[in-house]
Amino acid sequence: MHDMLVKLYNLPGDCPVIEKAKDHDVTIRKPIGPEKHLVIEWVKTKFNKAWSSETDVALCNRPVSCFIALKGQKLVGFACYDATALGYFGPTGVDPAFRNKGIGTALLFSALEDMKLKGYGYAIIGGVGPAEYYKKMVGAVDIPDSSPGIWKTWLQEL
Fold it and tell me: CA end-to-end span of the chain, whole Å?
């Protein structure tokens, strides 16, 4: 999996995809301190330990660099940045039962807009899975020779 680059200065100022999530009664926001353990455990259960570790880092950043999607009181998605390395977007994920409702896109735009407001000109999407999605949604372009990239010496469980 390779990395992609997003020009944050080209993002639309008024993003309708965030409003679309509200049509499904989904709230996108940053988690607060007492929710940290719940978010980390949810990510670990729904996705994997590595992503839960990165989410932990994002939740410890000040300001927090993680967004969550809530349907009522139910956690249905998350997106982080500055978790693996500064300037990197990810990890991100949506509960399979809530996919294809614009929630992932709302999380993506929320995180990228937050990065832009912090002063980043570009974001790196690391270890991209759905490359065509990112090209379509945010104009991401492939970074040549970026695999395995930052994960080249990643310590993993045997």
Answer: 20
